[in-house]
């Protein structure tokens, strides 16, 4: 069945009223008809099975047949701090890492990014990124929409992550259990070996901050700064990945090691 994320207000007890882009997709793109069924999600962790009873150009109405807890969400939470890349490459990361299971994205300006300031990221671009995440989440059967946060400078992101690494478990702010930075010059610490050690000392769910550099990678002084804020550098093996590939490989390996891709 087709899946659609909708605002919570679209669900009214036993009825779903679908408008805007969702109604357009049902009516114009998918050409769905009364009697067909779809899954509707309100980003609350629940999914609702809906039978369409009315389909029009501006609005589709459905009868809610039942609900269940949404699947598709990993217990391991990965927040991807992704340095801004060329347009197609960055959008590729958003799409594929949503499919893989990343729960939060932070666009990041670092020394070698083509964008020099978070203020240069236009609102229209952010809206396009949200659309890419939404469509990827629907296609990949995610139970929740990954969060897209405001763009940040590398140094600011490290300060935030360093503070979250130091949080007590009782803090209302979400704690990071570790921060990982894949780096081509790291020779000693492999990602898998580090994750095996983490599994021995942390109970699920684990929350991980993952930093990925831009085209050209992180500068050595950036790596030193990251280590000073508690980040751990890891190698992804003897081959050098492009920036957009490194994000997908690292996220996949983390989730695989914790049994999230079985």
Give a structural overview.
By secondary structure, this protein is of the alpha/beta class. The protein folds into 2 domains: 2-69, Hypothetical PUA domain-like, domain 1 (Ribosomal Protein L25, Chain P, Beta Barrel), CATH 2.40.240.20; 77-257, SPOUT methyltransferase, trefoil knot domain (Alpha/beta knot, 3-Layer(aba) Sandwich), CATH 3.40.1280.10. Helices cover 34% and strands 26% of the residues. It has 7 helices and 13 strands. It has helices spanning 20-29, 87-100, 123-139, 154-165, 191-201, 220-228, 243-257, and strands at residues 2-5, 11-12, 15-19, 37-41, 46-55, 59-69, 77-83, 104-109, 147-148, 152-153, 178-182, 207-212, 232-234. The strands form 2 sheets. Strands 7, 8, 9, 10, 11, 12 and 13 form a 7-stranded parallel sheet that branches. A hairpin with a 4-residue loop joins strand 4 and strand 5 (46-55). The longest helix has 17 residues, at 123-139. The chain is elongated. The two termini are 23 Å apart. The model has no long low-confidence stretch (mean pLDDT 92).
Protein traits:
262 residues; Ribosomal Protein L25, Chain P; 34% helix; Alpha/beta knot; elongated
């Amino acid at each position: 069945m087709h899946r659609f994320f909708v605002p919570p207000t679209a669900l009214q007890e036993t009825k779903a009223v679908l408008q805007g882009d969702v109604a357009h997709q049902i009516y114009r793109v998918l050409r769905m008809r009364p009697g067909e069924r779809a899954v509707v999600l309100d980003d609350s962790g629940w999914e609702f099975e809906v039978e369409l009873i009315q389909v029009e150009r501006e609005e589709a109405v459905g009868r809610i047949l039942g609900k269940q807890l949404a699947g598709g969400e990993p217990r391991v939470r990965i927040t991807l701090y992704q340095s801004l890349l060329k347009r197609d490459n960055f959008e590729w990361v958003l799409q594929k890492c949503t499919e893989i299971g990343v729960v939060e994205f932070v666009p990041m300006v670092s020394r070698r990014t083509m964008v020099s300031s978070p203020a240069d990221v236009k609102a229209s671009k952010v809206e396009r990124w949200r659309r890419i995440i939404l469509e990827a989440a629907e296609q990949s059967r995610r139970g929740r929409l990954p969060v897209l946060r405001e763009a940040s400078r590398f140094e600011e992101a490290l300060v935030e992550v360093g503070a979250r690494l130091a949080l007590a478990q009782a803090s209302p702010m979400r704690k990071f259990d570790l921060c990982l930075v894949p780096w081509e010059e790291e020779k000693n610490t492999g990602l898998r070996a580090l994750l095996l050690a983490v599994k021995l000392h942390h109970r699920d769910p684990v929350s991980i901050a993952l930093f990925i550099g831009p085209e050209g990678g992180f500068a050595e002084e950036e790596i030193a700064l990251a280590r000073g804020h508690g980040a751990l550098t890891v190698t992804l093996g003897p081959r050098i990945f492009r920036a957009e590939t490194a994000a997908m490989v690292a996220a996949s390996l983390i989730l695989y090691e914790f049994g999230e891709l079985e």
